[in-house]
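Recap from last week: sequence in, structure out.
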Amino acid sequence: MASEDTKRDPYDFPREWEADVLLSDGGTVHLRPVIPSDADGLVAFHGRLSERTRYFRYFGAYPRIPQRDLERFSVVDHHDRVAFVALLGDDIVAVGRYERLEHGPSAEVAFVVDDAHQGRGLGSILLEHLAAAASECGLRRFVAEVLAENAAMVRVFRDAGYQVSREIEEGVLHLEFDIDPTEESLAVARSREQAAEARSVHNLLHPKSVAVIGASTDPTKIGYVALTNLLSADFAGTVYPVNPEHKSVRGVRAYPSVVDIPEDVDLALVAVPAEAVESVLDGALAKGVKTLLIVSGGFAEAGPHGLHAELRLVGEARAHGMRVVGPNALGVLNTDASVRLNATLAPRLPARGRTGFFCQSGALGTAILADAEARGLGLSTFVSAGNRADVSGNDLLQYWETDPATDLVLLYLESFGNPRKFARLARRLARTKPVVAVKSGRHAVRPQLAATSAEVDESSVQALFEQAGVVRVDTLAQLFDTALVFAHQPLPAGPRVAIVGNSSAIGLLAADTARAHGLRLAADPVDVGPQASPEEFAAAVREALNSPETDALVVVFVPPLAIPGTAYARALREVVVEMDKNKPIVSTFLAVEGVPDELAVLSEDGVPTRGSVPSYPSPERAVNALARVVRYAAWRQRPQGNLVRPAGLHAEQAQVIVSELLAAEDGKTTLLSDDDVVRLLGCYGIDVVPFRVVTSADEAVTAAEDLGFPVTLKAVDERLRGRPDLAGVRLDLSSVDGVRRAYLDLREISGDDEVYVQRMAPKGISCVVGLQDDPSFGTLVSFGLSGLVSTLLGDRAYRAVPLTDVDAATLLREPRTSPLLTGYRGDEPADLAALQDIVLRVAALAEDNPEVRSMTLDPILASPDGAFVANARIVLGPPPSRPDTGPRRLRPINAPA
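Predicted structure tokens:
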């Protein structure tokens, strides 16, 4: 008998299952569920398969698809029978499907890939998306029958990270495995995601050929500038100007269109007006260009019409396997001697260095490159992505993680497209390479977050960046100040700073700044005096570096009148090179900003490299930059912690509850009832102190007797609940008469018959744990002590999910009032382990249920006997644009950039 699910419209598939995915070679395909109109495409796909591939898939020749099978393959119910097609343009290049076995929790899974696209990772992508769809439809296990000689398919299952059981009979392998994600399967997916995204960016930054579409002979046009910059940098590959009106541009043969170029084109730089870009795209798609770099403006930044054109352009490009940088981008560059790519509108290729730079703003890009050159900061690669319609900062983080030419990452960001993914990638990258970010527009809240976002104070913003290991700065000047230390100096072993100079006033200024940043002085500042010789100055520097109490050195210097300051600078450099103490040094020298020649250690290319001493116009800027590096080094040294999921979680049950509640409200944002709050929290082992809602004095007495004396009575009206003087909260009610009188008093004060009767929790310190959305970091867990003073002072600590055990422990200790929990003035400490357990359960709830848009547990009574939740409030709503969970996929093109 057919199930209800088989009666579904075969065209009506879950739209969230549709996705653009990135393959192992950096190309893209579009993935979606199969629909009946795919029948002709399936026949054409089958016709392209080799005999060997058909034999492996169907265990026989199967030269054509019979009509009965074609209908079965193309008409599915998207529940018990699910199939995905991978599309490149209009062509199906892979198919994966599962069929439920006997209405049970298992399904048979199989897939087949076009011979021309095998080895691109399509099998593992299909398996991930099929497993996610199957889990959503209540399935728990996959089985597969695979010919033992089909090594590639066996490898797809074996390497997916699942626990696979295998049996073989007559040359056929029978495989079975649970499809619930495991730590290993998630790690495999993350690793493949990193490799694919890194490869995609590698294709962008290492092209063997570049076509300049819109190359112009007019020096005032950007097409002229772009071509000139490519040629001036001495690009190692081939440059193809595209201009239908000229046979050559800048002395290089030109082609009427990109399709007329006789060789492959890896990168197409588009410098034509916005209205002409769509026609250019058609040619690039026909040519098979890997990446489109659009420096033209007039798209999303120009209004709704431009946004529509941008979305259509990117959707078409991805569907044909191409990635897009921009529109409205300054461009990309790579200083590698074997590439020498300057595909930007900036006039010069920067000096070779080991710093990667991602800049969202095209307008600032040229100034940023000029500033880096002026300060002596060499770059490895630079990407200005403009509107970030496709390629974003997250893609670059994936690339730089494994790029051997990059040791330091700098970011200029205006917004986050996927904040959870940014935090995950940055946290992983920062363990090996410093990440320094300027984040502008910090308090710009996206419309879909407006109802559930709350402003996070500045110190907490800093803590959230530091949780991910990102060094956050407020200005481009601070970005470069900090980058110079990271790029040229080692990381300090600790916070102890020595100060050496020839001016006591400037030395004291440096010392005051160091103390303000929490640095410790290794000793009193050393003043060699204004008459000291370069040799005496060098001796003082040597002694400070030799001291085991010194972790870092600040050199402050005012040039004396008698001797040129350059002699002192050379003396400093010689001491540093000679001693090689692996301790960072910053200076205020010669009033120079950057790396002066006298303090530079030059690479083979003649640019400042490791060992160079950065100089700053003031001691405050020097110490500020050093302090950021010290904090980062301390973060690197701290234990990372482990992502922890406490025992007794019932995520599947919670999802059923959430889905039912949202469906009842037609998907609209809604405040849950008390009973629903208790149900949902109970799925995560968070118990609310038992309570009843009553409407009469007799019911209040009955409830008190059932719950057990003593009890608490309080108003239901939330407007009154925070005001005990108005709400008439009655505590420690231990008698029937007391409960009756309290109910009548509360009803009179509040004007409401409904009153809470709650069992009295053990006395303790009132705390609050919350969940909220943030436009920069995604879902945040907050912690603080309850009360008006804590609220007024903004004494809350925040962490972004997911949380490690270390995150949870430090979250509890970060508020300024947290000593009240640890035995302040001799009181018995609260049970911090119980509080930490609640925090981790709240984080797990947020991870599993992005529909929970905000939550407040207030108060939680923290006592030596445990932590007890007395009240909770939960708001459900449509989840934000895809959280960083589920199978691999590119950011939806209509999602916020």
